[in-house]
Design brief:
By secondary structure, the chain is α+β, with helices and mostly antiparallel strands. It has helices spanning 10-28, 34-62, 72-85, 119-122, 125-140, 143-154, 160-189, 192-204, 211-223, 228-235, 242-253, 256-266, and strands spanning 64-65, 90-95, 102-105, 111-116. It is 67% helix and 7% strand. The protein is built from 12 helices and 4 strands; from the N terminus they run ααβαβββααααααααα. Helix 6 (143-154) runs antiparallel to helix 7 and helix 7 (160-189) packs across helix 11 (242-253). The longest helix is centred in the middle third of the chain and has 30 residues, at 160-189. A 4-stranded mixed β-sheet has the order 1-2-4-3, sandwiched between helices. The protein has one domain (10-266). The structure holds zinc ion. Residues 134, 138, 178, 181 line the site of zinc ion.
Amino acid sequence: MKTTAYRYANEHFILAITIFLVLLVIALTATATLCASVIFIIGFVVLSYSMSQARHKDLIRQARRVTPENIPEMVELIQEGIRRLQPGQIEVFVAPSRALNAYTFGLSSPKVVVLYSALFQVMDKDELLYVLGHELGHVALGHTWLNSLVGGMAGIPSPGAAYALLNLAFLWWNRACEYSADRAGLLACGRLDKSVSALVKLAAGPEADTRAELEAVYRQIDAEDDTILGSLGEALGTHPMLIRRITELRRYAGSEAYRRLQQRVEQNRL
Ligand SMILES: [Zn+2]
């Protein structure tokens, strides 16, 4: 059993459909020849690469890189996530911000994970491991570089309707990747309750800190998938509705596949 066995079942299927649609659009439209398309995609990837390098330089100026010397208490937490999920070469930065967010980027190694500083004020160790694990999951499953490549393919110049279709497919794949990364977060912290509370806190923002406030946010999240606007928003978004992510996490946490993989990742070594 591989450490990355948590990949959401539909992720590869949706990726295959997206790539198939791109090839179909290229074949059916006269606006982009195969050769021009290849050049466009390569150009897009090169552009993504240089943008990611520039972003990295900016980050080094503003954020603190986590090392045993400057933030020793965080190194332990990060090593715990890395040990379990085995994402490969990683650099973790803490960016000063009052927002609650985390993201990853990079086409070449080491990949970069950025955690906003406010996360450390509102989350406990397990919740932080969930957030970190989610990002490490994106890295381990290759989402960071695939995102540039598939984004480039979906952005290929094509007639309006085809362009919209390719973008919808790309967003659909993005959402499948989120389900996979959520599972990685669960495997990193090993607790469903903490995974869910981390997601609720991310949605609630840094101001909601009492139990009652968080419960009110949860009720809002829970009501979200009953509205048409919610469903429409999801189809146009990079992330699934939060309540669907939570439901999917709960379902996965109850599966035999999860139980076996959780045992497996606990035994991983650095
Ligand atoms: Zn994500």
